[in-house]
Amino acid sequence: MRCPSCKQRTLDPTELASGPSALGCGGCGGVWIPSRSYWAWLEARGDDEAPDAGDAPTARPTDDSEHAKICPDCGHLTIRYEVGAGVSFVVDHCDHCNGVWLDRREWDALVPAGLHARLHHVFTSGWQARRRRAESEERADARLAEDLGAETFAELERVTAWISSHPRSRTLLAHIRASVEQTFREARRP
Description:
Structural class: alpha+beta
Helix content: 40-55%
Strand order of the largest sheet: 1-2-3-6-5-4
Distance between the termini: 80 Å
Largest sheet: 6 strands, antiparallel
């Protein structure tokens, strides 16, 4: 089985830290995780080791290759999926046999936040839709922060968080809405 990234070397059995059996390339450092190995590993982990979805990964350098890859198991073209959830690289997935290619150090970047145990979710339309929505919200926040200024945006975020967490948030919002509408009505009067 040839490496789908460097195409020069044969993939050899390897063990991933906190992970399933895989096939690694001694040249480029990438790893192929066959679907059967991944699912057997997940089943052996059990629910008691399920990752906390709230963990935020730390930035770790990876060697994300950008060229198309051929699945070393079945020969189909792999598809690149952006991981999101604080991770800025893509993983290659074979939609035919469900194997996954990770470039050098990508597995190590997924482990701290438990994304390695949710890797199968990355390839779903729901995950990708949430990732795109989160990226869109981040861009909108960045534009608003630029427009308002960092200090005003930070205060807006603080007040928003306070209102959201308040037990009577609906009452607070109703009062704010009424006050703002009154202010606009008064401003329109000649």
